Amino acid sequence: MLKVFCLFSLVQVLVCAQAMAQATRCQSVIREFYRDGSVRLEVKDMATTALGGDLFSHEDNREGRDFSVSETSRYLLFTISKGPDYMDGITSRSGFDDDGRATLSVADGNKVFRIECRK
């Protein structure tokens, strides 16, 4: 019985690892533009969670913004929202372009907040 349980557990781990390997890579990007012409650029990989089947979640939260992507095999649902209550923001449903990229951007003053995803 223990051998069957261990084999079943190993199969679950392998299936989960394969699903994570096939997941899209998403990054949160913040660009801040200054009057002197310089630009501050921060790029960070978003945490990816396999939610089962073909559903994945990509998330990041920094500088008072929540970056979120819900991914299925058919589309991506992007959200960039502003704290503290996260009621102010932008949401868009998208697919990948011919180059395997999908993006969403929102500007606030001299900052641009962006999500970039690649297959």
* Widest beta sheet: strand line-up: 3-4-5-6-7
Main beta sheet: 5 strands, antiparallel
Number of strands: 9
Distance between the termini: 40 Å
Oligomer: single chain
Q: How would you classify the helix and strand content by structural class?
A: alpha+beta
Average the pLDDT over all residues and give the rounded result.
86
Q: How much helix is in the residues? A: 10-25%
The gross shape turns out to be globular
Low-confidence stretches: 4-21
Please tell me how large the radius of gyration is: 18 Å
Tally of alpha and pi helices: 1
Proportion of beta-strand residues: over 45%
The sequence of SSEs as H and E is HEEEEEEEEE
State the gist of this model.
The protein is of the alpha+beta class.
Describe this structure in words.
The chain is of the alpha+beta class and 119 residues long. Helix content is 18%, strand content 56%. It is built from one helix and nine strands; from the N terminus they run αβββββββββ. The protein has one helix at 2-22; strands at 25-33, 39-45, 47-52, 55-62, 65-71, 76-82, 88-94, 101-108, 111-118. A five-stranded antiparallel β-sheet has the order 3-4-5-6-7. The chain has a four-stranded antiparallel β-sheet with strand order 2-1-9-8, with no helix packed on it. A hairpin with a 2-residue loop joins strand 3 and strand 4. The chain is globular and about 50 Å long. It starts with a helix and ends with a strand.
